[in-house]
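User: I'm new to structure prediction. If I give you an amino acid sequence, what do you actually give back? Let's try with this one:
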Amino acid sequence: MAQKPSIPKGTRDFGQLEMARRNYIFNTIRSVFGLYGFQQIETPAMENLSTLMGKYGEEGDKLLFRIQNSGEKAALTPEKGLRYDLTVPFARYVVQHREEITFPFKRFQIQPVWRADRPQKGRYREFYQCDVDVIGSDSLIGELELIQIVEEVYRRLGINVCLHINNRKILAGIAEVIGEPDKMIDITVAIDKLDKIGVEAVNDELRERGLSDEAVTKLQPILTTPPQPSPQGRENDPKAKLAELREYLASSEIGLKGVEEMEEIFSLVEATTPSLKGRAGERFSIELDLCLARGLNYYTGAIFEVKALDAQIGSITGGGRYDNLTGIFGLPNVSGVGISFGADRIYDVLSELNLFPEELQSATQVLFATFGQDELCYALRWAKELRANGIAVEVYPEPTKMKKQMGYANDKNIPFVAIVGGDEMAQNKVMLKNMTSGEQQLVSLDEIINEKIRK
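Assistant: Good question. You get back a string of structure tokens that encode the predicted 3D arrangement of the chain. For your 455 residues, that looks like this:
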């Protein structure tokens, strides 16, 4: 007995409807990226393992998929791994192609990545990322544009979101203030889990990572401080939080630098696009989240995460600024900032909230159903003309029972069926049936092109 086929855990097949919906997401994101002057590149699925290792922290390194050397002498061939994200390969690309690049370099990528993670809802081992980065500029205009891109993408998709923002310099300053400057990575890895495991479990992990009880106690105001109400009634007033941080971080130069950067980002948002400030519970809002850490070691400035307000799922977009990621590949002091849209989680949110457009149910706009061979040839000629006018058409490949042909149209959610019989041919027309309303009408080719089929 043949073994039943299967696919690896954490991966998925995508059928026709799923691909139509995924392409809707990709095309929406791609079109917004283009509005800001970003252009597309692609990098290989596999990279040399030395390119990937040490860039994601100890947690990330454990999740790298390694590739067994095949057909090559192992001793002479670098070890390889599937890419964990698109940012590190992008940094490698920038260094390798530096002579061909005009800086600031604005690029986007829409490609799959792989992580040896435990599969669960919203978390897969193979998934797509939609990355957008600008590299070669220190300007915080980059952060502003990313915020605007996030707002526009989710406005077009119809998803209500909150953008959480913090700064790694602030986190470094906090580590200094609590007396543990060398434990900044341990602190960020632990507090990045706050939403998942809670304050007490984070405190336990901090102690396990070597922080003293005194340091953990000093950290509590950051872990437990609720959002500050603002005079305008917003739940989250970044100016109030930043003013408190200035006092808390008064002894830390790097911490104060992070506060200054955040003040400038919020000022840019307020000055250029005040509608992006948002109120909690509205379609789009921004929250200064001091517990946001993002566990990737390469971030050095502003960091972002976006969460859907109406669906229980993790972050659906994330990113931040990295000041020297290219330095590890031999091109130092090149700052960049970018974000990544998680297409698979966005798909899950759109599905849960029933936000996909109905027209994605079928790519075909009209099906020709025929009674005989002559009618089939007639339909093929019409189909060619309709396709030339941008109308997606199928011709049922054989003149079988009409019930079977209609069933095919129903199964594929095709909105119109053009029925061709002898009487229709004699009048150089077809009987066009609206599969939703059941209405039938005798129409000409020009009428279908100009009026009868929704484009």
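You can read the tokens as a compact description of the fold. Here is one thing that stands out. Residues 226-235 have pLDDT under 50 and may be disordered.
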